[in-house]
Amino acid sequence: MTMQNRPPIRARRTTFLLYAAAALLSAAAVQTVGCRGSSVPVGETALANLRANVAAYEKAPSEAQAAAVEVAFAELDTEIAKLQAEATTASGESKQATSDRAKQLATERYELRNRYAKAIVAAKVDSAGETVKSLGAAMGRGLQAAGKSLEGAATDAKEKPPAD
Q1: What does pTM read for this prediction?
Q2: 54-69 core/surface letters (b: 16 or more CB in 10 A; e: else)
Q3: Residue 30 binned pLDDT confidence (cut-offs 50, 70, 90)
Q4: Which of 85, 108, 122, 155 has its CA 20 to 30 A from that of 26?
């Protein structure tokens, strides 16, 4: 297109904005269809991720794994909030199904939160048990050393006659 045949700037800008808006709407539609049109129920991926992270924390508790669990909880909370918002705008069977799914996810979230809390307590108890064991071992070594020192002092006192 030559300079003389180009449409005015305002027309080009309007065309660009229309194409941009269409692209955004298409992307939103693809995302919505991709999430809702798939065979995986809404929130199932986030729920499976949370289950896996809680199980990993139960096996090997660490700060990094705890952070991963918290991120997974946040992701599931986001899915639940989206479903609740969608349920307020939906109608009929769609509203009921969306609301039921949000409730189901919230129930499973609650159960996983309890399981995670139990895992945290178990990890703290194990940690405290290890601390008590190491403290007991240290005290035992200290008492042994003190006993040997007293034994040595008693032996020395027997061998040396009292000074007059």
Answers
A1: 0.57
A2: beebbeebeeebbebb
A3: very low
A4: 85
